[in-house]
C-alpha cells in the first residue's frame, strides 16, 4: 500500500495537469485525432490489419484517461477522509 500523502500529491498533480491549458491541447490536437482515426478505421474496414491497431489504440487511450480520472478521484476522496479525521481529532482535543 502506498503512502496516502503521496497518493494525494499524485492526484493533485494529475488534477493540475487536467486543468492546465496544455492538457486541452494534448487531448484536442493530439489524442482525440488519433482516437477519431482509430474509430474511422474500425468503421471503414472491420476485417483489416488496421482493425487490431485501431482497437489497441482506442483501448490504450481509454485506459490512460480512466487511470488519470481514477487517481484524481481516489486522491480527492483520500484527502477528504484525511481532513475529516483531522477535524475529528482536533475537535476531540479542544474540548
Q: Which characteristics define this entry?
A:
3 helices; mainly alpha; about 100 residues; elongated
Biggest sheet record: none
Would you list the SSEs in sequence order as H and E?
HHH
Structural class: mainly alpha
Shape: elongated
Overall pLDDT level: 87
Number of strands: 0
Gap between N and C termini: 34 Å
Cα-atom radius of gyration: 20 Å
The number of distinct helices, counting runs of at least 4 residues, comes to 3
What share of residues are in beta strands? under 5%
Parts with pLDDT < 50 across at least 5 consecutive residues: none
Q: Approximately how much helix is present in the residues?
A: over 70%
Question: Please, could you describe this protein's structure?
Answer:
The chain is mainly α. The protein has a domain at 24-82. It is 91% helix and 0% strand. The protein has helices at 4-19, 21-44, 49-94. The longest helix has 46 residues, at 49-94. The chain is elongated and about 65 Å long.
